[in-house]
Amino acid sequence: MKKIFTYLLVVLGLSSSALYAGGFQLNEHGAKAVAMGGAFTAVSNDPSAVYWNGAGLSFLRGTHFMLSTHAIQPKSSFRGVLPNVDEYKLIDQTFFPTNFFASHYINDQWAVGFGFTVPFGLGTKWDDEWVGRYLAVETELQVLTLSPVVSFRPFDELAISAGFVYSFANVLIERKNPQTPFTGDALIKLEGDDKSAFGYNLGLMYKPIDKLTFGISYHSQIEYDFEGTATSTGAQQLIDAKRLPMGDIKAKLTTPFNLAFGVAYQALDNLLLSADFQLVGWSSYDTLAVDFVDPNYTDVASPRMYEDSFILRFGLDYQFNQELSLQGGIYFDKNPVPNEYLNPSLPETDRLGFSIGAEYKFFNNLALRGSYLFIRGSELRIENSKEYYSGNSGFNGVYNTFANVFSLSLLYSL
Amino acid sequence: MKKIFLSLLIVFAVVLFFNACEDRSDLTAPAPLNGKSGNADLTKYVAIGNSLTAGYQSGTLFYSAQIYAFPYLIAKQAGVEMTGLKVSDPGLGGRLEIKSLSPFTLYTNPNAGSPMNLSLPAPYQNLGVPGALAYDVLFATNKDNCASAVFAGTPNPYFDLVLRNSALNIGTQLQQALAQNPTLITLWIGNNDVLGYATSGGTAPSAPTNATQFQQLFGGICNGISQAGKQAVVANIPNVSAIPFFTTVGPQIALSTPWYQLAPQGVVGLVYQKTGGTIGVADSVSLLTGTNLVTLRGSSYAPLLGQPTGKFYRDNGLAIPIGIDTTKPFGFHPQNPWPNSLILDTDEIQIANQAVANYNSIIASTAANFNFAVVDINSVFNQIRQNDFTGGTVYNGVTFRTTFVTGGLFSLDGVHPTNQGQAIIANEFIKVINNKYNAQFPLIDVSTIPGSLIFAGKINYQNGYPILPPEVFKHLLF
Question: Does B17 touch chain A (CB under 8 A)?
Fold first, then answer.
């Protein structure tokens, strides 16, 4: 009888949760950049250049500080599983990524900057009894970075920059697992963090003529070695028999590189137009593997098969008068997830962003900026899902997503 | 200039506004079937049967599992409601639960639930009565005139709970079915006519219902249905030797007994008591291959093999029979043999298999006579049993075997299917209904049916055998 249970396997497809993905990447670094649809690589005329394009620091005289906070409210619904069309909604959550930038112009050649940013900081939460609970209940990824940047301007028209990125991250994945043939579900929770991961960034800004600026910015991949624990809430018998995951786990993850090309044109004395093309190297994310330290558990790996994606951005900045300027922007963000691997832990679809914003200068050295960004995910109907919510039944259905993003920045100059 | 900017802003605002409106596509849910598809009409579907039809599992009838009995699943797929006896968890006493998986230990839940809807003022549509024989469908109206009461002196209270004749006064399972003017009847009866014999190791009753009687009884039921102008879909009887109640303990004895040490002492196999009092020997190969089948009840006594013990007799309140010497090694000595009631030996297997073969040919020919469709459950289970040795049978991505507990098909009593086992059975019925009546009722996604083996607290175990206290099988009804 003991023997029978050596091949009893309550198979745990821990595999299927997306640990992070495009939708968890935050491009919200300062209200003005957001207001201009993120077409900021060739603009970068405030301390957030530390993130957008460090070379911009060389064109920014003085010493400046900028503190920004964003309120992000993602909304998603799923209707399915086809042929059923019951609707399930993501539980409302608001995320408040906050960032801080400082810049200092040393001389006509050198400038330095420092940034604290949250490049990933979103999550999703579904009801723990919903139809897709075996795929996702709660998923959250938070990445914080500290980044010093130095910029060098060898010629009047050209500046280049390099920055070092120190990053720490934590991740939470929670989902259910059926205990079939036994009764009930087990709740599986994976938590992990990496307290030190490193990356770099490079920037270039070129102003061939006064009215025209080109920018290139590169953010490297960052490899994270997550260490953490798996805990299961389920039948004690399954836990004792090591059929539910418990104990230390490790997982490697690589966040994608970002390569952005930007152009900005001063169309009128008081109107700046900008455009960006940003390449996101999501193909770094082809497999998600979770290793158990205890050899009694089988390590799991699942294909994610993300594809490189891109974001196309357009922005404008209009100087209304001495105190007030207005911004607007629009962008298109290509979904990196092939439809068949789309997972409700991150309902990814192609997205359009529409943004407006304003800056008001109270004093010469103090300005307040605010922006609103509406993100609209295109409706996505999936009929060939390889994400199995049960047995070999694909999680087919229709996703609708949108998000509201409110941003506020305070800019102070010495 | 400002005009340009303002017009840009307006265009932008308009675009934003239209995009903010949700352009959600209309999705249409599948049209409700309301019981009808093709020529099939399940608007008043009635099921006649035994424990399998009632949704009995793990030694009792309890709500959280019985709602997955195949008749309810069929009704759900057809989009109709179905009434039936419901008993709150943990059932009417004696539910088997898992104390521990490794080592594997069972336990009997001492608590009992109660019937939930006895006062329904109409006959139940699910007329499955745990323990019912073919005889009962035609003749039993209460616990005191059912076959077990009449022939073995054991009243079966489920007849009172399901038929409720003291209030309804309608009569037998068949009469109650026809009184509802059913649009379709499923009939799955006859399992107990052989199972009682087999599970008691060929002792109680001492023979399966004989074929002639079965022919009269089954023919009588079908004739009654047909006379009333009703249609039935009937299922045949699965082979008893493919269920874990018989296939679990024997191989374990074969594998865990040190035969090479026993051989010099003249012990070449399990020494057991045959019907009639003679002694038989089941060697390890026969135990391994199922030529002799040790019942699941035997798992309580298998750890005692070779010991001088009379525990079996004490546990069951039996006097030690003449000629038995409990100081001799249990199961290895002709004077303290493995009890007859715990083994279905080659001869008895032959009798049980012959009975099943007879019943199934009777079921096939009778159904053909009345133009009723037949669900060949026997072939399905035989196929699953065969696939056990080649990786199992996959339904909707889930692999099933007939093995005890791990196989996913059978509940903890080793006889009755799990929820998912019931879903597989329901799909076989649906396929036949669809085929017979040119209907398109959807099949069940077996993987979405929840598990039904229940966990309890923890206790100890012995020698690698599952601990199945003797009282575990007190409530076993088929």
Answer: no
